[in-house]
Amino acid sequence: MSLEETTGNLRDQAKRNYERVKNEIITEEKQSILSDYQADDFDSVLLIVTAPRGGSSLLFDILRHHEGTCSLDGEHDRWFTLNGICYPALESDVVPADFESFDREKLLTDLLAEVGATDRSGDRTHRVDNTLVRLPLQFPDRELPYEQIRDQLLAGVSLDEILEELGILPLQYDKYAERDANSPFEAETIEDRPFVSSHRHKRGLTADDFERTLVLKASGDAYRLLWIREQLFPETDVKVVHLTRNPAASINGLYDGWRLNRGFQTYDVGDLDLKGYDGSLWCYDLPVGWVKEGNLIDVCLMQWAQAHRHILDGRDAFEDILRVRFEDLLTDSRSTIKEIVEFADLGESTLLSENVENPNKVMTTKEPRHARWRDREDLVKNALDRADEPYTEVVEELGYTEESEWI
Fold first, then answer.
1. Residues 205, 131: Cα–Cα separation, whole Å
2. What pTM was estimated for this model as a whole?
3. Orientation angle between helical segments 333-343 and 56-63, nearest 10 degrees
4. pLDDT over 90 for what percent of the chain?
5. Measured between alpha carbons, how far is 388 from 57 in angstroms, rounded to an integer?
6. Cα separation of 140 and 42, whole Å?
């Protein structure tokens, strides 16, 4: 059986279980929203785009605490994957602007499946619903007792207890993955496990919430900006925040992530022979020109450069784009967030202000520390010295030519 056939079978199984959960297991209130609305019914969308390890998880987590926003619990790549808009149906993560071989109505409904509205009081039932709709994507090869899981979650049983009863290692799921598994994840999955988490200040959607701004972020969007503008949200007010981060820090973060067994794996592309990598699965985004052989550090550099190159090439499709440096988000958080909030026309938010003062640690590979890339400075610098286009052009366009600013 070919890789595409195997992937297709797994996707079919995930779809079947997901449709059952969506139509039979989650609350009637959520079922009603998903039958009457789609993601493009929001008045506006704020799209955060960057290269992987660019800091978008931190920015997304801060912005989704704004009471004027709605959001998913993590990246939305899994819904594109579920709908076959990914490798191996496509040669890379690039989705051509004229790509129409997908069910638009279904994808827009799926994108809404775990969206919640930010509200200080929150809603535990919403978090239970979101856990249930994700399980078929996280464990597509398992026939899980979804009704039982729902009842246990509503009764207050912790998810790790439930998973262990089912013979599933909690390390393979969400917040329990801050440490490595004993071996690389080999099981097929629809979702890029495991960094998905809700927060307690979210509740289920109501009809009035579609007047809010939907915040979306996925590093893969760097490769599908034109398609998003022309095919997915052609009539929606979409504002784009282009988040940048210096190449050394980003590449170092990618190098760390590739070498950890924490769920950054995305694709089975066949045998890999990358110096510095012992795993068997591709990690993070799949850029144009991806290779199976060579040095891992060079692949990481390619992932950074290609993502930003595609963002820069796709910016003219949008009227409203704001470029923000992750370095500024770290060193001048309040002013940087204020600029983004004003750009997105979100207004004031007490809950957001509290979160800016004490942000969560999200999707980190190691304890955050300025200029951590200097721990392997020689490896990183040698890769940068070997690099040519598009790296050299991107560094120039993004203004990262001064190494002294690389924190």
1. 16
2. 0.91
3. 70
4. 74
5. 29
6. 30
CATH code, residues 3-405: 3.40.50.300
* Lowest pLDDT segment from 86-95, 296-305, 398-407: 398-407
3-class DSSP assignment, residue 115: coil
CB 372 within 8 A of CB 252: yes
What is the Cα–Cα distance from 134 to 14, expressed in whole angstroms?
Answer: 10
Nearest Cα residue to 266 out of 140, 81, 142: 81
> How far apart, in whole angstroms, are the C-alpha atoms of residue 132 and residue 153?
10
Task: Indicate the domain borders of the chain.
Answer: 3-405
Beta bridge partners of 215: 46, 71
Q: How confident is the model at residue 98 (pLDDT cuts 50, 70, 90)?
A: very high
**267 in Cβ contact with 282 (< 8 Å):** yes
Beta bridge partners of 46: 215, 239
Distance CA 56, CA 50 (A): 7
Q: How far apart are CA 253 and CA 257, in angstroms?
A: 6
Q: Model confidence at 294, in pLDDT bands (50, 70, 90)? A: very high
Distance CA 24, CA 310 (A): 40
Let me know if 182 is exposed, middle or buried by CB neighbors in 10 A (0-12, 13-18, 19+): exposed
Q: What integer is the mean pLDDT of 353-369?
A: 68
- Pairing between strand 282-283 and 44-49? unpaired
Q: Which of 351, 225, 257 is nearest to 54 (CA)?
A: 257
Instruction: Give the Cβ contact number of residue 103 at 10 Å.
Output: 11
